């Protein structure tokens, strides 16, 4: 170029950063005679996203005061957030002269990603003037962490404040409804999509399929699925999983085979769903063949959940010794669910010797790992419960109680006239 200016230099640096070439970006940055705030923010962002957060902070501290605008501050905060360093992000955030909506949302999303929903809400409540992005960050964070009731209540308050939902909001809402298993709330969100004429993009359509499938309305889920012009792996997995969970194992297997010849190939989640279908349908040979396909055909690594499904599959078919041998060859330590599946099969088929071996095995593994007696009682209690041996499980719980051993309690939720959804606000808004 006969003439270059700060804009062209920035464009080149941005190009190298987007292609992961930090070295050349650094060289160009060093050669620049004049830099703008864009130059500094690009380099800080590039360093942070490459994982070199120390260098990003050093560069941030070198930014001339007249160029350290709200974007530069935001990029530094977001860099810390992206690297999971919320304490450092909070430190910079608190001394920002001015804050924009993006940095508020970044902090909310960062805390939610860490599972600290309470602190995310504290940040949200400090925003003087909120926008849709801020609300979406909070609602998505609630849904991602399983605070589904709170997500639905926030959705109602958002509308009461005069904000119209977009595709991002809807996707989070559908996820919350799916997790709660609330078909009525899910249908209300679907109706909202139609009334507000929200464009049903890939995320919204995936959310609808997932919600209807998890809530048991397989027919509607399948109708939306079949009407989609483009399906990604998330959509296929939701549909296969929905069919499997609701006892339509034949249909789940058929859909899996359709996916195999489609543009989207199965992943680890797909195989978990279809193995579950084999367990529910009693398709032993098909399940074993599908399990083998993971590595042989697709180069996927089976996780403990996949092994657990196969152990359960073999156990239910009375092939207890094969199930035990599979556990012994697993590349990872078996958990309570895996042992529980085998112990349940021992109970069904009166395999008392194998049951004793399992109990002994759990005790030996516990001892070799240096775990306490407390942990042993908890594990064995969970295994008995997973295998429906409630008397044994209760006996273990009594021993735990006598020894003062605490186990974190579980909880369930039910819907009574939609009370858990939003007691004071309607999903429809004002």
From TrEMBL:
Molecular function GO terms recorded: RNA binding
UniProt entry tagged with the keyword Ribonucleoprotein: no
Domain of life: Eukaryota
Transmembrane segments: none
Any GO BP annotation: RNA modification
Keywords from the UniProt entry: Repeat
Repeat (PPR) residue spans along the chain: 5-39, 69-103, 131-165, 166-200, 232-266, 267-297
Gene3D superfamilies registered for this protein in UniProt: Tetratricopeptide repeat domain
Stored InterPro entries: E_motif (IPR046848), PPR_At4g14850-like_plant (IPR046960), PPR_rpt (IPR002885), TPR-like_helical_dom_sf (IPR011990)
Keyword Methyltransferase listed: no
Protein name: Pentatricopeptide repeat-containing protein
Originating species: Coptis chinensis
């Amino acid at each position: 170029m006969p003439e270059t200016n700060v804009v062209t230099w920035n464009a080149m640096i941005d190009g190298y950063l987007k292609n992961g070439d930090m070295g050349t970006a650094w060289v160009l940055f060093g050669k620049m005679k004049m830099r703008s705030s864009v130059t500094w923010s690009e380099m800080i962002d590039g360093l942070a996203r490459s994982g070199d957060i120390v260098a990003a902070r050093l560069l941030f501290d070198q930014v001339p005061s007249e160029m350290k605008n709200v974007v530069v501050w935001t990029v530094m905060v977001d860099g810390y957030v992206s690297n999971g360093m919320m304490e450092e992000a909070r430190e910079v955030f608190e001394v920002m002269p001015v804050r924009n909506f993006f940095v508020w949302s970044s902090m909310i999303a960062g805390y939610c990603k860490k599972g600290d929903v309470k602190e995310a809400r504290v940040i949200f409540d400090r925003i003087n003037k909120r926008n849709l992005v801020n609300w979406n960050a909070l609602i998505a964070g609630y849904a991602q962490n399983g605070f589904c009731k709170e997500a639905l209540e926030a959705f109602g308050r958002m509308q009461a404040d005069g904000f119209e939902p977009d595709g991002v909001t809807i996707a989070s809402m559908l996820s919350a409804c799916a997790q709660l298993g609330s078909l009525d709330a899910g249908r209300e969100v679907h109706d909202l999509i139609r009334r507000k004429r929200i464009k049903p993009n890939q995320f919204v359509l995936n959310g609808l399929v997932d919600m209807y499938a998890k809530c048991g309305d397989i027919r509607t889920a399948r109708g939306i699925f079949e009407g989609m012009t483009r399906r990604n792996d998330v959509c296929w997995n939701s549909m296969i999983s929905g069919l499997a969970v609701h006892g339509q194992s034949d249909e789940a297997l058929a859909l899996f085979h359709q996916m195999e010849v489609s543009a989207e190939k199965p992943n680890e989640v797909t195989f978990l769903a279809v193995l579950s279908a084999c367990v529910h349908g009693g398709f032993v040979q098909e399940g074993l063949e599908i399990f083998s396909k993971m590595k042989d055909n697709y180069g996927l690594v089976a996780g403990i959940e996949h092994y657990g499904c196969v152990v359960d599959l073999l156990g239910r078919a009375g092939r207890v010794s094969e199930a035990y041998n599979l556990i012994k060859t697993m590349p990872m330590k078996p958990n309570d669910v895996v042992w529980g599946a085998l112990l349940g099969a021992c109970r069904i088929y009166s395999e008392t010797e194998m049951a004793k071996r399992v109990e002994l095995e759990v005790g030996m593994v516990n001892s070799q790992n240096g775990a306490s007696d407390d942990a042993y009682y908890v594990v064995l209690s969970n295994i008995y419960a997973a295998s429906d041996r409630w008397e044994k499980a209760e006996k273990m719980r009594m021993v735990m109680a006598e020894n003062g051993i605490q186990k974190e309690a579980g909880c369930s939720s039910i819907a009574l006239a939609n009370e858990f959804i939003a007691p004071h606000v309607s999903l429809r808004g004002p």
